[in-house]
Amino acid sequence: MTTRSDPGSLCARKVDFAYNGSPVLREVTLSVPEGALIALAGPNGSGKTTLLGLLSGLRRPAAGEVTLDGLPLQRRSPRERARTIAVVPQRIDPRLAYTTRQLVVMGRTPHAGFFGQTGPRDAHAVERAMKSADVVSLADRRYSELSSGEQQRVAVAMALAQEAQYLLLDEPAVHLDLQHQHELFELLRELHHERGVAILAVLHDLNLAALYFDRLALLNRGALVADGPSGDVVREPSLLALFRAPLAVVSHPSAGVPQVLLERRQS
Description:
It is a single chain. By secondary structure, the chain is of the alpha/beta class. The chain has one domain (9-262): P-loop containing nucleotide triphosphate hydrolases (Rossmann fold). It contains nine helices and twelve strands. The protein has helices spanning 48-56, 78-84, 100-106, 120-132, 148-161, 178-195, 206-212, 230-235, 237-240, and strands spanning 9-19, 22-33, 37-41, 63-68, 71-72, 85-88, 166-170, 198-202, 215-220, 223-229, 247-251, 258-262. A six-stranded mixed beta sheet has the order 6-7-8-3-9-10, with helices on both faces. Strands 2-1-4-5 form a four-stranded antiparallel beta sheet, covered by helices on one side. A hairpin with a 2-residue loop joins β9 and β10 (223-229). The longest helix is centred in the last third of the chain and has 18 residues, at 178-195. It is globular and about 60 Å long. The N and C termini lie far apart (63 Å).
């Protein structure tokens, strides 16, 4: 029997997961409280996307449990989970023939009434999401005709339309140019500060993590090796060594947060 605990949080407790018998996560515990702003980083193959899948309910842990407000996530219906947790995946099938607006409307599915009926509140949420993700100009274009960066922004708009309490993003900036990276991460901070949305984003870029996120968790070989204030984690030499590259840490010229630079080999 599970005891109710951690009210107001999405939490993985000592979760294990394996693919075809090969361990990917081992006894990972990570809590995402209401209103949190967390980046999840680590070397390739460390289990970041898998952990996001467990926290969203798309995967089940082999051991341990994932809870939402202290109760097992899997006890909640898919519809209830979708009303609470929105996910921006790394990739949506690029061949989809739906228009941008049609896809963003699909983000309202968890809130639709009988027979998929929608109302003024749904229409407002769709328009707000499209404006926030800067895809209004793409409304009538087919998803399959968009660039990778445009498709990524549509995926963000779909998640925003859900108006969920938790937003999980898997490498959200990977296809975005600098303008849209800036706009996306400013938007995430706005959602966090003004609407209280809890955000967990998988990132490879430690500089974005330190610049925009309050907390940074690091995975390595399926284990959580750090979880704390972003600046403290980035400044720790033993943690940067996980990335197996020559790195230097400097201060951002205006924000003052640590930034990580690659060092060239001296010829």
